[in-house]
Each structure stands twice: as structure tokens, then as C-alpha cells.
Amino acid sequence: DERMRNAIVERNIFRSGASTLQQLFTWAQEITVRNNIFDTTGASNHYALGVVRRGIEPSPDNVRVYNNTFYSSNTDNDFIAVEIGTTATNITVRNNLAYAPNDSSHVMLSGTGASGLVASNNSTNAQVQSTNTGFVSANPVNPADFALTSGSYAINSGISLPLFSDFFRALRPQGGSY
User: Fold this and answer.
1) What average pLDDT does the chain have?
2) Which pTM was predicted?
């Protein structure tokens, strides 16, 4: 039984395989998950990031989820970008972008009843499916494919957060906005 605290998960690409249940579980305290790409295409399950209690460890507390990109090209996979368990407390989910254009049941954030949840400036559930994010590629595979074109609704729609660059190490903010 080891307890993990004060960790940053940053600039990773999470890809799914046929037996992937979830790309990242966060069942720790004082964790920041920022500037990652989660591609659940091909997964047998639908969650990308789970902030949940797994077993005997303390419940997740003070977890921050900032500036991540969530994507899936699956059909009927019930896409959920971020799942928050009922025992998680003080969770902040901001400036995250999700897109699952072929999915019929899609949610940016599930489990919104956690105590102390702050969520803002994320893709809406409607945008997850119906609004093209403006990725450089219509079918992103490589990291560069997830860069945004100038017409993306996500550009300059974030809020100030304690980070200095994005996935590609471009300085933030640019043009005065995140």
C-alpha cells in the first residue's frame, strides 16, 4: 500500500488498444494532469481519464485536470473524457478540449457530484460530437495532427491557469488569452 502525492502528469500521449479499459486512473492526492493527448480510438471501453477511488487508498483529493485534449473516432463507444468518482473531492477541470465526432453518447465530464468540483472552459457535451475542434487533421493520429487551426472555437477560450506552455511547448498565453 503505497501513497502517491504531489505529482504532475504532463505532455504524454495516451493511446488505446482493443483491451484498454481506461487510459489513466488518478487515485491519488495533489495531482496535476496537464497538456496531455488522450486518444481512445480502438478502445473497448470509453473513459479516458478517471479520478476515482480504486480500493483501500484515500479518495482522490486536490486533483487538477488542465489543458488536455481528448479524442475518439469510435462509433457508439459512449465516450467520456473525464470520469470523477463520488468520493473524489476538490477536483478542478479546466481548459480541456474533447472531440468524438462518430460517437452517439458523449460526455466531457461525468460524475459531476463530487464535493468541491470546479469545472469551466471545457468543451461542452454538444461540442464533443457536433463541433469540429479545428484540428490540423480531420482524423488525427500523430501529435502534430492535434494542433489547432486558426478557426478553432477553442483558441482564446480558456482561462488563466498556472502553466507556462502547451503540449508542443508553445508559450502560454498567446495573444493575451489561453
Assistant:
1) 87
2) 0.91
> Order of strands, edge to edge, in the sheet holding 97-99?
13-15, 37-39, 69-71, 97-99
Q: What is the pLDDT of residues 79-128, one digit of tens each?
A: 899 999 999 999 999 999 999 988 878 899 998 777 899 999 999 888 88
Residues paired with 13 in a beta bridge: 37
Laid out side by side, the sheet with 79-84 consists of: 22-25, 47-51, 79-84, 106-110
Which grid coordinates are listed for 142? Answer: 500523430
| Grid cell locating 25 | 486512473
Give the Cα separation of 33 and 117 in Å (integer): 15
Report the C-alpha gap between 144 and 160 in whole angstroms.
Answer: 24
- Identify residue 115 by its one-letter amino acid code: S
